[in-house]
Amino acid sequence: MRDKKRLPFVVATALIASLSAAFTLQPGKITVYLAGDSTMANKAISARPETGWGMPFNAFFDTTVRVDNKAKNGRSTKSFIDEGIWKSITDSLHTGDYVLIQFGHNDEVPTKTTYTPKADYQANLERMIKETRDKGANPILITPVARRSFDGTGNVKDTHEEYAAIVRQVASAQQVPLIDLDKESMELIQKFGPDDSKMLFNYVKPGENPNYPNGQSDNTHFSELGARKMAEIVLKDIKTLNLELASRIVVSHLGIK
User: Fold this and answer.
1) Per the residue annotation, which of 38, 76, 79, 185 is the catalytic one?
2) pTM here?
3) Domains of the chain
4) Which of 19, 23, 75, 235 is the most exposed place for a label (fewest CB within 10 A)?
């Protein structure tokens, strides 16, 4: 008899628990925009196995995240803005979105039409930060990823030293999360060493791939392995920075804690 009296209470408790779970607020859906150059960009089939690190990056998030890779080959902060690519991002931004900003490869070369003097490079980064924040979104600055370049003693050379320093200075002054991909990718390349580090980059032997019948020795752009390794560095740092975005990373895919 006592059990029969308790039955309605048990049922009611279970119903309340079920309703509570149903109405628990789930994280809202957001978009993560990638703004950068060829080291980050999506690649055409005709360019493979060259792979931008933004390509594997989107595979590590849950269903609340959409990654929109706006990075383009050959772009600097200057040309990215001048061509309206940056505006296409700011026009689409919503509160809670993220913008990962990585430039420098094409800004720092004086012989290129995309050359951006240091003062302009700094101003462009500051503009991107402001316009992202104006939309209630979250900017993240990333130093330019390292090239595969060794000195005569087998040590990796910092080919982005001056422009990477500007990114760090802007991040500090503007209190923006910083991912020091220049430093961390240099460490990774050094760990692989002068020979094995070729596996991280778009090195193809003659006759090995129809896209590169004469072979390819590219010390700037990544292989699939290299792109994944760079994406993993960025994802690891998002977690280390304890950003809200970190809660949306599917850890089982990444293998980090």
Assistant:
1) 38
2) 0.88
3) 26-254 (3.40.50.1110)
4) 23
